[in-house]
């Protein structure tokens, strides 16, 4: 048994045991906005006088079926600025910040959340511009997001035949692991009865769709930021353009997808003896960001 086949069996077993097997076309059921539960999001008090403070609280739970990494700080950040994305820095400074993850772990920049694990955040916001509060006061909309880091892997088995008369293999699989993002792998240019089979003379291409499975109009809107996937072919070669590879981050909002097009090198047909089986695999890391809402703090003029 070759190593590639052993790896394929192992991948399939992981999918089965984790409940990640989708239909034969490679799609999986959306984990979308079921991946997060907001236990508490509040600001107390919501109205303060100039020079006073308010406390923002956020308590979230991973209610999805997948483990996720919650990375709370951007480069140089220290107050979970990837979570509290707007705190009106010209109005407030943070005088105290606390975060507590699974098992009471504190002070980390990222937390590994298994199913039902929770994280609690507390920010104490101190009003800093006490001499510039107008008579009518002003307000600040605190905006909250939750960025979960995931990985996704998918494969599709393919077949190359000399002609239609060659029997070949009828059972070819296509699967993707579950999560807010999935891969859908399709073939282009096949003249065979099965879309997973190419015949000699076909202009063989493969389309790989990166799909944000979140539905529009759900409770929490979300977007995905993903790296260009690693794409590997087994049993055949892809053309030298690397499927249009780019170093730019790919961003997809709810329901959106990104198509990557790969050309199969025609050399696969040169020495073809009857039929040949191959496989295309795609994998990438991505961040699923859910916008979970905002809370308003009103700053009132204190007077003389």
Can you give a write-up of this model?
- By secondary structure, the chain is mainly beta.
- It folds into 2 domains: 3-32 and 150-288, no CATH class; 34-148 and 290-300, Immunoglobulin-like, CATH 2.60.40.3880.
- It is 5% helix and 47% strand.
- The protein has 1 helix and 18 strands.
- Mean pLDDT is 85; it is low at 1-33.
What is the compact description of this entry?
With 304 residues, this protein is mainly beta.
Order of helices and strands: HEEEEEEEEEEEEEEEEEE
Query: Compute the gyration radius: what is it?
Result: 25 Å
The number of helices is 1
Spans where pLDDT lies below 50 across 5 or more residues: 1-33
- Structural class, by secondary structure, is mainly beta
Shape designation: elongated
Number of strands: 18
Mean pLDDT: 85
Topology:
Layout lengths: L2 H15 L19 E8 L2 E3 L3 E9 L6 E4 L12 E3 L5 E9 L9 E4 L4 E10 L10 E24 L12 E3 L4 E8 L8 E3 L5 E8 L8 E6 L3 E5 L15 E4 L3 E7 L11 E26 L4
Parallel strand pairs: 2-18, 9-12
Antiparallel strand pairs: 1-3, 3-8, 4-7, 4-9, 5-9, 6-8, 9-10, 9-18, 11-13, 13-17, 14-16, 14-18, 15-18
């Amino acid at each position: 048994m070759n190593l590639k086949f052993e790896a394929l069996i192992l991948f399939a077993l992981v999918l089965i045991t984790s409940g990640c097997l989708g239909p034969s076309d490679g799609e999986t059921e959306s984990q979308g906005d079921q991946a997060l539960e907001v236990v508490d999001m509040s600001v107390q008090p919501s109205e303060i006088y100039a020079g006073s403070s308010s406390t923002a609280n956020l308590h979230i739970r991973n209610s999805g079926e997948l483990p996720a990494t919650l990375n709370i700080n951007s480069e140089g950040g220290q107050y979970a600025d990837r979570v509290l994305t707007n705190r009106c820095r010209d109005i407030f400074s943070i005088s105290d910040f606390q975060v507590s993850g699974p098992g009471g772990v504190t002070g980390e920049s990222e937390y590994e959340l298994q199913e039902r694990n929770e994280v609690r955040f507390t920010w104490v916001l101190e009003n800093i511009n006490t001499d510039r509060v107008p008579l009518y006061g002003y307000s600040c909309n605190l905006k909250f997001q939750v960025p979960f880091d995931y990985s996704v892997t998918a494969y599709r088995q393919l077949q190359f035949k000399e002609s239609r008369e060659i029997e070949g293999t009828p059972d070819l699989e296509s699967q993707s692991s579950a999560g807010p993002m999935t891969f859908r792998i399709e073939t282009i240019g096949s003249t065979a009865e099965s879309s997973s089979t190419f015949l000699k003379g076909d202009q063989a291409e493969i389309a790989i769709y990166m799909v944000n499975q979140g539905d529009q109009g759900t409770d929490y809107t979300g977007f995905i930021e993903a790296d260009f996937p690693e794409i590997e072919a087994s049993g055949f070669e892809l053309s030298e353009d690397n499927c249009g590879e780019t170093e730019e981050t790919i961003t997809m909002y709810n329901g959106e997808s990104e198509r990557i097009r790969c050309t199969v090198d025609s050399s696969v047909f040169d020495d073809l003896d009857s039929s040949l089986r191959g496989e295309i695999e795609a994998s990438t890391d991505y961040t699923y960001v859910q916008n979970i809402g905002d809370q308003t703090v009103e700053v009132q003029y204190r007077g003389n």
